Each structure stands twice: as structure tokens, then as C-alpha cells.
């Protein structure tokens, strides 16, 4: 019987194991360095498990080969993900923004379903076991001096985001030892830092606004959604999306009242004076800070409301990021995500140079890539 090793028991590794065990007669071994499978998956979507999005397409991703991403999404997209999970059990519904969650809104239930399926399918799960080396003949080295030869190896070791879940980037070294290169990695879907003085007094205030990333004064990306002020910058889903496009030296221009035109604002602000000027216009805490900063001057207030400028000083880093931008280039894989440098080695998930927007796109990529790999291996055996 053919033997397949999957390295990394996260979203893509578990899905790939389940897809393979369901469709071919082969022995599937899943190596996970942590104590449990799917620890990160269980924390996704604020613990609610936003597994995909009804609005799908390569435009929601960044990669060295978006056409390949589009092709792979057309082979396994939103409906396929929902079907894949529905066949294991459960109900999956989109919210108003297209974000699909299990009806019970528990990410850990997704992990439990996958875990149960793997155990029913007879997938051999090897926990608390870090793979330290893969050789060109597909021998996998693990634990203390143990090794095993496989007919296919799938590297699903994730990226560098949220290393507390076991993803410290060691998977890149495994791939690099077999000749792969690495698109430089940066944290994405992460809080952006600015000069703390510019957000003093605003911590905890949430606004539905627009974030525009300005580079040398020109807009490079604009998005609308939740902006949450923090001690050192901003967070929230609009900030997370912007973080995929912003870099140090850029300036964020926040429109804190995107549905109200400047002329209308002047008209409204002329009705009151003093600290009451912004009552029922914005959150009171935000109003007090803006009023002080504008010295009560109406045109300065309008400027602050429509273009609140925050120079980007960086991010909170990988420890706080949801996903890694960069990774193993798609250019070094074929259409089933098999390495073009080491036959029989495949990649799935965040380890690849594909990162998606906030809203279920990264888990969708984990499942899409897992499917491509499972089909590729099936075709070879
Ligand atoms: C807090 C948080 C919330 C998120 N929310 C969402 C969301 O709502 N929707 C969404 O689409 N995306 C979300 N994401 C992103 C998404 O979780 C990841 O993109 C996705 O889990 C990546 O799947 P993966 O299988 O590639 O890697 P991971 O799920 O990170 O799994 C990789 C696994 O490999 C193991 N491993 C690493 N090296 C080795 C080794 N050498 N040997 C053995 N095992 C190893 C690790 O321990 C880990 O378990 C979120 C991320 C975070 C951190």
C-alpha cells in the first residue's frame, strides 16, 4: 500500500488527510508537533470559525501567481468547502457580508468534525511530533532519530503568523533544504502601529469608517469597515484588510463619517458650538478628542473627520498577525501544488505565497490547496 505523510495538523493538513483517506486506498500519516490537531482552526473567526466567504475570487488574494489561485478556486471554491463540511455534518450559513460560519458559531466544532472524520477514516495521527527533515527520496525524519520513507509528502506546516499555535516558520526551512526559495514574509491581517500620541484617548473606540492607504500621497488601497482604535494604532476588520497593503512610511487616511459629505458636515457642525458641536455626530469620546485637537475650529474638525491621518510605523508583528504574507512561491509548484523541484513533495495552506483578505479567505485557501494536492496525489497513485 502507498504511504502518504502530511506534515502539520492544521486546517489544510487535516482537510487534505480527510480528502485523501476518503478517496484512495493508501496509508495516511498526519504529523503534528502540538498536543492537538487544529489548534489555530479552533481559534478562527473570533472563535466562531469563519471558514469561507460567499464572495470568492482571486481578487481577494495576494500571490506571485493569482491566475493559478483563480484556477484552483474554480476547482474547489466556496460551495465545495460548504459541501465538504456538510458531508461530515452540520449547517453552514453566510452572514450579511458573505462570511460563512457553522450555524453553531463555534470554530472548535469544525476541528472536532475533522478530527472525528480522520479517526473514522483510519488516518494515523502522530501528535507532539515535530518533523525535522525531509530528504529528496521522501524520507521523513521525526522525533528522536525516527524516520520513515513515504511515496508522497505534503508540507502543511503553516507560516509564521501566531507562532503560539506551532507555526514558527520551520516549514520554510524544510522546503528550502529541498531547493525551494522563499518570498520574504511579513505579518498580514494585523494591527497597524502609528505614533501613540496621535491616537491618545481613543483606545477602545470603534467606528464604521474608511481606511485609505496613501503612499507618497497617492491612494494605493481603500477599504471600508470596522476601525478599532488601540493604544498604539488601529485594529478592526478594515485595518486588517489595509494591513495587507500598507507598509512603514505609508500614511493611513481615515474617513470617520464615510456616508456624510463635507458640505453636509459643515451644515451640521454649524448648529452647535463648544464641546457640543459633535454630539450625535460621532462617539462622544472621539468627539472630545477631535474637538480638542481642532481647537474647536470647524474646518479643522471637518478635516479630521474626513481625513484623520496616521503615519504607519509598522505592525504588531507575527505574534499578533492572523496570516503570513509571502512564503513558498506558487511558481515552484505545478497545478496540483506538487513541487517542481522535488517530485512527490506537495504544499498546502499558508506555507505557500498566497494570503487572503479577512473574511474566510485564508481558510478557503487552506481547503482549496488541500483539494488540489489530494487530486494530484490521486492522479499519481
Ligand atoms: C487568531 C486567528 C484567527 C483567524 N481567523 C480566521 C478566519 O476567521 N477565517 C480565515 O479564513 N482565516 C483565519 N485565520 C487564518 C487561518 O487560520 C490560517 O490561514 C489557516 O489556519 C492556515 O492553515 P494551515 O493548515 O496552512 O496552517 P495552520 O493551521 O497554521 O497549521 C499548521 C500546523 O503545522 C504544525 N507544524 C508546524 N511545523 C511542524 C513540523 N515541523 N512538524 C509537525 N507539525 C508542524 C503546527 O503546529 C500547526 O498545527 C485566522 C488566524 C488566526 C491566528
Number of helices: 10
CATH topology of the largest domain: FAD/NAD(P)-binding domain
What is the mean pLDDT?
Answer: 97
The total strand number stands at 22
Measured between the Cα atoms of the first and last residue, the distance is: 10 Å
Percent helix:
25-40%
Largest sheet: 7 strands, antiparallel
Name the shape in a single word.
elongated
Number of domains: 2
Strand order of the largest sheet: 18-17-14-15-16-13-19
Structure description:
The chain folds into two domains: 3-186 and 323-380, FAD/NAD(P)-binding domain (3-Layer(bba) Sandwich), CATH 3.50.50.60; 192-315, Elongation Factor Tu (Ef-tu), domain 3 (Beta Barrel), CATH 2.40.30.10. Helix content is 29%, strand content 25%. It contains ten helices and 22 strands. It has helices spanning 11-23, 66-75, 78-88, 107-121, 170-176, 237-243, 262-269, 284-293, 298-306, 361-380; strands spanning 3-7, 27-31, 52-53, 61-63, 92-94, 99-102, 124-126, 131-134, 139-142, 146-149, 152-155, 183-188, 192-193, 206-215, 218-229, 233-235, 251-255, 308-311, 314-315, 323-327, 345-347, 354-356. A seven-stranded antiparallel sheet has the order 18-17-14-15-16-13-19. Strands 7-2-1-11-21 form a five-stranded parallel sheet, with helices on one face. Helix 1 packs parallel to helix 4 (107-121). It starts with a strand and ends with a helix. Residues 7-13, 31-34, 39-41, 43-45, 50, 130-131, 156-158, 161-162, 165-167, 170-171, 322-323, 349-351, 360-363, 366 line the site of flavin-adenine dinucleotide.
Amino acid at each position: 500500500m502507498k504511504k502518504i505523510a502530511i506534515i502539520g495538523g492544521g486546517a489544510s493538513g487535516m482537510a487534505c488527510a480527510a480528502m485523501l483517506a476518503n478517496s484512495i486506498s493508501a496509508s495516511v500519516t498526519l504529523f503534528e508537533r502540538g498536543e492537538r490537531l487544529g489548534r489555530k482552526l479552533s481559534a478562527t473567526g473570533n472563535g466562531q470559525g469563519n471558514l469561507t466567504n460567499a464572495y470568492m475570487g482571486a481578487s481577494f488574494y495576494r500571490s506571485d501567481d493569482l491566475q493559478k489561485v483563480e484556477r484552483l478556486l474554480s476547482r474547489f471554491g466556496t460551495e465545495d468547502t460548504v459541501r465538504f463540511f456538510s458531508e461530515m455534518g452540520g449547517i453552514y450559513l453566510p452572514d450579511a457580508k458573505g462570511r460563512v460560519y457553522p450555524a453553531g458559531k463555534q470554530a472548535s466544532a469544525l476541528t472536532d468534525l475533522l478530527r472525528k472524520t480522520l479517526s473514522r477514516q483510519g488516518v494515523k495521527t502522530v501528535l507532539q511530533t515535530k518533523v525535522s527533515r525531509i530528504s529528496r527520496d521522501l524520507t521523513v525524519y521525526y522525533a528522536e532519530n525516527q524516520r520513515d520513507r513515504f511515496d508522497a509528502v505534503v508540507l502543511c506546516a503553516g507560516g509564521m503568523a501566531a507562532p503560539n499555535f506551532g507555526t514558527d516558520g520551520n516549514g520554510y526551512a524544510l522546503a528550502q533544504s529541498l531547493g525551494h526559495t522563499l518570498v520574504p514574509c511579513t505579518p498580514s491581517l494585523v494591527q497597524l502601529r502609528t505614533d501613540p500620541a496621535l491616537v491618545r484617548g481613543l483606545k477602545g473606540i470603534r467606528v464604521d469608517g474608511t481606511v485609505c492607504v496613501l503612499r507618497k500621497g497617492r491612494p494605493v488601497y481603500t477599504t471600508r469597515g470596522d476601525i478599532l482604535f488601540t493604544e498604539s494604532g488601529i485594529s478592526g476588520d478594515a485595518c486588517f484588510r489595509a494591513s495587507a497593503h500598507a507598509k512603514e512610511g505609508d500614511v493611513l487616511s481615515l474617513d470617520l463619517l464615510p456616508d456624510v459629505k463635507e458640505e453636509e458636515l459643515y451644515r451640521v457642525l454649524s448648529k452647535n458650538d463648544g464641546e457640543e458641536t459633535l454630539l450625535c455626530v460621532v462617539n462622544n469620546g472621539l468627539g472630545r478628542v477631535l474637538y480638542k485637537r481642532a481647537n474647536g475650529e470647524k474646518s479643522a474638525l471637518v478635516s479630521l473627520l474626513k481625513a484623520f491621518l496616521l503615519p504607519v510605523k509598522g505592525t504588531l508583528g507575527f505574534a499578533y498577525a492572523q496570516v503570513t504574507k509571502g512564503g513558498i512561491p506558487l511558481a515552484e509548484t505545478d497545478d496540483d501544488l506538487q513541487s517542481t523541484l522535488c517530485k512527490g513533495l506537495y504544499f498546502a495552506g499558508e506555507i505557500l505565497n498566497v494570503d487572503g483578505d479577512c473574511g474566510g479567505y485564508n481558510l478557503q485557501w487552506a481547503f482549496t490547496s488541500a483539494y488540489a494536492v489530494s487530486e494530484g496525489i490521486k492522479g499519481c497513485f
